[in-house]
Amino acid sequence: MNNVIVWQFHRLAFTEPMLLSLCVSACLVALALALRHAITRDDEGLPLAGEMAYQLMHDAVEEVVGANYVERVLPFVGTLWLFILLANLLGLVPGLLSPTRDLSVTSALAVIVFAAVHVFGIRASGWKAYLRHYLAPTPMLLPFHLISEFTRTIALAIRLFGNMMSLEMAAMLVLLVAGLLVPVPLLLLHVVEALVQAYIFGMLALIYIGSALEAGQPGPLAPSPLEEH
Question: Which residue ranges does UniProt annotate as crossing the membrane (predicted)?
Answer without folding.
Answer: 73-96, 103-122, 169-188, 194-213
